[in-house]
Fold:
Amino acid sequence: MFEPLISYLDSVRARDPAPRSRWEIMLYPGVWALGFHRVAHWLFEAKMYFLARFVNHFSRLLTAIDIHPGATIGKNLFIDHGFTVIGETAEIGDNVTIYQCVTLGGT
Structure:
């Protein structure tokens, strides 16, 4: 049940020398933003746009990372720092690392 989470945390640990444990990684704002995005994206795909945007705005308030609910994100995305914006048209593959102040996607 927890294998996907452990795999994700290990992929972050492999790319970031700072954390001393998986528990510490769980406190990273990028991890929280990605978790909120997964919920918001599910709501967006289910055409519950208002709820998707609500989750998105709550996440942005908590993490300073804005990921549009319509953005397509692969496995093991690691957002190392805040102030990142990922737009609706962004398509991010697997095992990508994004550092601070990055803006992706646009129409």
About this structure: The beta strands are 65-67, 72-73, 78-79, 84-86, 91-92, 97-98, 103-104. The chain has a mean pLDDT of 96. The radius of gyration is 13 Å.
